[in-house]
Amino acid sequence: MAESGEAVDHHCQVLIVGGGMAGASLALALSRHAPDMSVAVVESAPITPDVSPHEHYQPSYDARATALAYGSRLIYEDLGLWPAIAEGATGIHRIHVSERGRFGSARMDAAEHGQDALGYVVDNAWLGLNLVSALGNADIQWLCPARVQSAQSSQQGAEVRIERDGATESWHCDLLVVADGGRSGLREALGFSVQRRDYDQHAMVATVTTSRPHEGVAYERFTDDGPVALLPHRKSHDYALVWTMPATEVERRMALDDRAFLKELQGLFGWRRGRFERVGRRHSYALGLEQAPEPARPGVVLVGNAAHALHPVAGQGFNLALRGLMRLSACLAQAHRDGQSLSDLHTLRPYLDEHQQDVDAIVGFSDGIIRVFSGSSGFPGHIRDLGLLALDAAPGARHWLARQNMGLNRRRSSLGHE
What we know:
The protein is an alpha+beta fold. It has helices at 21-33, 53-56, 70-78, 82-86, 124-135, 186-189, 247-255, 258-269, 317-338, 345-373, 381-393, 395-406; strands at residues 8-17, 39-42, 65-69, 89-92, 94-99, 105-109, 119-123, 140-143, 146-154, 157-164, 167-178, 195-210, 217-222, 227-232, 238-246, 276-279, 283-291, 296-297, 300-302, 308-309. The strands form three sheets. Strands 5, 6, 12, 13, 14, 15, 16, 17 and 20 form a nine-stranded mixed sheet that branches. Strands 1, 2, 8, 9, 10, 11, 18 and 19 form an eight-stranded mixed sheet that branches.
């Protein structure tokens, strides 16, 4: 290592900024798709690839979780990681969709599709630790803890200055992948524009405990305030709650004591799972549809939340990102085999075109749900009621919706599988 402050020159073909779930998934896929490609990952958190998930994972009642679609399970199976992830995954066997004050409802059951689950709920920490641990067996340069000081891209690749161990290193890469979310500032520093539609809503997330066991049933209940989603989470009586509400309500509900909060939740959700008995630490964040109109330019590409952030109503955000990461990995591996420049925007065009179709479909799907079930949608309640009843009675429509939730209506690319 050079003396503090001295620049050190390094080169790799792909430099991934962000070693979270998105960045680590891409790095792992590249290690499988193109094991001779030089890849480096920059991560600010002090995590090393030799981590043991079982030793470092501390299950917490307040753990943040992600809903993985069945299609995402197939991707992680292709990457050889699913058996490890499955140890901490809770299966969603059935989904129940309803609207408060209406008798219509729709149900989806994994058994109808010959699967053991429609999806899975996994603690973010467990998923992340297993991804990072898997990278310990891959030929990936792990720069951690480190942060990007500056970056610029061109037809020849990207020049990135990284601060690590008190020294500033100068890196050149053929392709810079921005995978550290939409709030890091690197996206804006590189000059990418972002389009945002504010929903004037917040999502409140927490763990709640019910008097009746969840039995693998997930709920999406639409209310005048917004959808209330309950996802089965680890212990038999615990749920991951995602409660969407107007911006004017979030501050008040965050300030409620636990008893008052659970009473309001009970009134909106009902008694299908008995009494709400406990709630953990609550978190909230503003909701909006955010997209980078041009997520790539010569030498750099945005992925995951840096490229698109969706409303959580359909639970498709990370699943959409993961499919895109696998397409990008396959595209880069093919270009590497063919001797094409990874910096050339033309090289990325097949990935960009295919993934944008997926993005448009999921955005249209989730945005449509919000508009139809919004209290100000203009759709009469009885029409929505009939729609849920018709959906429940129509096997074809129900099958399509289930496959949409399972992430199977779009092609996936992982290790050559489609």
